[in-house]
Please model this.
Amino acid sequence: MAEQNVNKLMDKLVSLAKRRGFIFQSSEIYGGINSCYDYGPLGIEMKKNIKELWWKSMIYERDDIEGLDASILMHPKVWEASGHIEGFTDPLIDCKVCKSRFRADQIDVNKPCPVCGNRDSFTEIRQFNLMFKTFMGPVEDSANVVFLRPETAQGIYVNFHNVREAARRKLPFGIAQIGKAFRNEITPGNFIFRTREFEQMEMQYFVKPGEDEKWFEYWKEKRMKWYDRLGLNRDKLRFHEHGKDELAHYARAAFDIEYEFTFGWNEIEGIHNRTDFDLKRHMEYSGKDLRYFDDETKERFIPYIIETSVGCDRILLTCLIDAYTEEEERVVLKLSPAIAPIKAAILPLVKRDGMPEIAKEIVQNLRGEFRIFYDESGSIGRRYRRMDEAGTPFCFTVDSETLENKTVTIRYRDSMEQERIPMDEIKSFLIEHIKA
Ligand code: ATP
Model:
């Protein structure tokens, strides 16, 4: 029963996401392609807002982090050095009867197959590398194999000295990057929670060895606080510390920030103390000296790295789920105004008496600064409902009183309360209310 409700909620969200233009199945007219999605007009706005908020908090609001946009295809040696060729694998197991495929660490292989119920039907466990391979140039042989990056982080490590020198940075400092990553996941699913192509927002903070634990604590707290700015429900967020057996090969300590989804607590962000593993390995494999020279102590050493890594698509899904609310007469997305795709709707109450003209003038005045929506079709109630489903926090209605005193009705999405404000205060109202 509980499972049914879980699926129902996800089904409703998937359907709303399509109906309102947040997210579409990729290549839908051809029957779709598993676990690939396209962002529609509202989805792309929301995603952009999330990325901007992350970028702002990493770069604009601080003075110790630089940005980078490294290429997706990298020298194949990068993935040897990083350990991905050897170790970026998931254990794969198949049911010989129903041909279902599972991650062996996600099911109990001593029990019957969870799909068909047959006993002793599993194959041996095989290690499956999650990196997508392709070929560079026209010849498809092993010398030309390149990989689609499974994380953006390596692009940052190999550029450590380029950025440090160009930006004249001293430790501690960070490099932040937003970009696509690809993993050939065995079991993608839960809509955009786990996909094979996704976007990451990663920041690598380079510190002196010995200062790593302090900075790890700092970033752990800092990152958890960031979710307040997205308006997420604090009770649904928690830390999960990786036990010794969960720790990745490079990590000394790792905490996940988890969200309580309808399908259970799951990771949305990882914060890792990667020690000097990455730069040491790249130094070894490239033969280049990647040490840092400390002017004050005259020491040369390999910096330690604290990483914060979050999936933009996964955050977007989290925000949609967190915001999805069913009330007696409506479905409403109670998104934080900072990430809502459309900031305000401008609605003439009726299509006459000069109301559309005034409403369009208001739109004109706001355009360029905010994503605004003008709508004159249908009853005002239906227009409000449409905006509720799109997560638009404010509707401004031009009515007969506007003609008399140049005020408009503002209708708040969450409370549905209405009040009047002067028409010429709409802009400052929005500036103030969409800040995060
Ligand atoms: P998992 O154990 O769930 O496979 P992971 O621990 O390998 O994930 P990381 O390598 O730490 O994940 O990736 C950092 C972040 O990138 C995750 O917290 C998540 O937000 C995002 N991410 C990772 N894999 C995917 C995916 N397949 N689809 C969408 N987002 C992903």
